[in-house]
Design a protein that fits this description.
Blueprint lengths: L2 E4 L2 E4 L3 H9 L8 E5 L1 H7 L3 H7 L4 E4 L2 H13 L11 H11 L6 E6 L2 H14 L4 E6 L8 H14 L3 E5 L4 H9 L7 E3 L3 H6 L7 H6 L2 H8 L1 H24 L13
Length: 261
Amino acid sequence: MPTVTFQGVAVACTTLDGAVNMLLSKTKEPLGAVRLANAYTFALAARNSDYLTVLRGPGVTLPDGAPLSATLRVLARRRQIGCRPCRVRGPSLFAAALQQGVSRKTRHFLAGSTPETLALLEQAIHRVAPGVQIAGSFSPPFEPPTQATVVTLAAKVKTSEADIVWLGLGTPRQDVLAALLAEHVDIPVVGVGAAFDFQAGTIREAPLALQRLGFEWAFRLAQEPRRLLSRYTVGNATFLRLIARELSGKPAGLSDGGDGT
């Protein structure tokens, strides 16, 4: 799969269907950690060297977010890379993989959120994807991933004989856990952010028209202004600076604001 590098991170050049097929295809070489990156992801990484290292590490990074996808298309043309990066939206990837995985008898493991949300999530999944196989679920402590959490989760995943692990923990926590867990299991570990809440119905999902127009952020901001205002204002401003840096050919690395640690 071709990639387009942004800030030293190789982002896969694929489509939603291509990403789903990649996740559900059982290959000899495990995919490992699968990250869904967007403008906020790179804004965080610009201030945190540890997180930037995670993004540059083993695994696959997919473009989740209209601004990032558009940026990658510009870079692909400038660098004469023969591909057209398309947006791979996390919640859409999750839903499509659940549905298409039924015929392939894919076994899914769900990790994240609260036990109550996980129960609602499983009920919702069975409604939209009859015949889906949920191998197991786990609600990790709400804290940065510890070695104990990784070992416990890895044991549960192995016992469940799952084919894929879905993490609904939010950025950057899910990406850090995915990288650690992938060292213990030989199946894809995918961080899909708010997909659990959307599917479970605990948070309203933006209408499809807004998703296609790239205005899902506005819908989410209206729902959670206190939590998301800084993310979209400061984060997007940082992302614009990163684009300027990338287009100017400056070396990728931490912004002048420090490493955020």
